[in-house]
Amino acid sequence: MYKEYFGFHEYPFSISPDPRFLYLTAMHQEALAHLSYGAQTDGCITLLTGEVGTGKTTICRCFLENIDASTEVAVILNPRLTARGLVAAICDEFQIAPALSRPTVKDYIDCLNRFLLTIHADNRQAILVIDEAQNLDLEVIEMVRMLTNLETNTRKLLKIFLIAQSELAEQLTSPELRQINQRVTSRYHLDGLNCDEVRTYIAHRVAVAGGGRAPLFSGGAITRICRLSRGIPRLINTLCDRALLGAYAQEKERVNKAIVDRAAREVFGQPVNRLAGVPFAAKPYVGLLLLLLLIAALSLTLPQTLF
Q1: 1.10.10.10, 3.40.50.150, 3.40.50.300, 3.40.50.620: which CATH number matches 26-190?
Q2: Domain 2-9+195-282 grouped into CATH 1.10.8.60
Q3: Cα separation of 257 and 187, whole Å?
Q4: Are both 2-9+195-282 and 26-190 of the same fold?
Q5: CA dihedral 72, 77, 83, 87 (to 10 degrees)
Q6: What's the pTM value of the predicted model, to 2 decimals?
Q7: HEC-encoded secondary structure of 98-150
Q8: Cross-strand pairs, 6
Q9: 3-state secondary structure of 265
Q10: What are the residue ranges spanned by the domains of the chain?
Q11: Per-residue pLDDT of the chain (307 residues; tens, 9 = 90+)
């Protein structure tokens, strides 16, 4: 709809993790460097965490696109599995299988170990990426730990990358998971973008989609998007997409703050003044509360005869 109106050759704010639209802030560059370093060194487990929508999956896909041909890759996108289901899925990703009709967990692990030893002898390596790893239950986390035991006398045979929401990092600090926590050799956490990064991020996506040089978002609109989205790229995309649709519907040449506010109400399903910070409508009451606190403080410090 608004694509032709604004001269785009594709929609700039799709929430699909397209690496072409990847905007690498210093933080995202460092996250990508941590993943690349984990693949190049003899580490054990690399952990990348972040809130929902901060770009973890996009960073991971960018990382996988740059893996060299000497690396075998297994990617588990749905980790809600049993321990047996996990090792079976890993073997399936590597296109190997035990020569048994009803293989046990041990059969799968033995099959995987033989495969890893074979490619190690051929100077190749294997990596395992588990996305949404915060969904792993304790039994499966223990299986991940056991997979780190697949090794020769000099190196680990399987490099493991856990991509997860923040709660996994907290979960790993619990006493029952201290063994696997000690095997995490690299950790990085993705936060939201700051307002300058939000401005550059929006301009970058507009440019990649073929937008013109004229800014499509006013300064006030970008400030509002930064505040409402808390710098989370997925929320930025959703707000910008809806705001551009609103500008198109109103036949506006650029998005202003009012259009963003209306888009936010449609996206979040609640009034804008409830979405970030102190509610706008409550600000006068905040001032009144401060005045009452000041009067109370004075009543305690001034002589009682004055009252």
Answers
A1: 3.40.50.300
A2: yes
A3: 38
A4: no
A5: -20
A6: 0.82
A7: CCCCCCCHHHHHHHHHHHHHHHHHCCCEEEEEECCHHHCCHHHHHHHHHHCCC
A8: none
A9: helix
A10: 2-9+195-282, 26-190
A11: 899 999 999 999 988 877 688 888 999 999 999 999 999 988 889 999 999 999 898 899 889 999 999 999 999 998 899 999 999 999 999 999 999 889 999 999 999 999 999 999 999 999 999 999 999 999 999 999 999 999 999 999 999 999 999 999 999 999 999 999 999 999 999 999 999 999 999 999 999 999 876 789 999 999 999 999 999 999 999 999 999 999 999 999 999 999 999 999 999 887 666 555 433 334 444 455 555 665 665 565 555 443 4
Provide the residue count of the chain.
307
- The residue behind tokens 């990596």 is 127
- Look-up of token digits 């190749």: 124
Token pair for 288: 């009144």
